[in-house]
Amino acid sequence: LEVSLPALLRAFMAIMQRAPEAMAVEITPDTINVGERMVTVLDRLTLQSPVPFLALFEGATTRALLIATFLGLLELLRRGLVRARQSEPGSEITIYRTVEAVVGADGHPD
Known about the structure:
The chain is mainly α. The chain is 41% helix and 9% strand. It has helices at residues 5-18, 34-47, 63-79; strands at 51-52, 82-85, 94-97. Strands 1-3-2 form a three-stranded antiparallel β-sheet. Strand 2 (82-85) and strand 3 form a beta hairpin.
């Protein structure tokens, strides 16, 4: 099944709720670089596809990084470069790469 946006939001909120309070930081324009996170997600999917949704957030050290990763994933989904699926509603979400595309540092396909 394709995953709905509300299902993705619920999964992300669960990640945010588990994040330690120490990860809370003030977000400044330099803190979040969604384009870089898009490249990171695509790089990960180049090496391994599919990837569990939760695995995309492993190693995030701040809430800003969690948010930037999620926003990057949403943009990749919007562009059709990745797909989110689950075997049944409420089951684990899996992210798949759909096309081979080069994404520049600005987050736009070259």
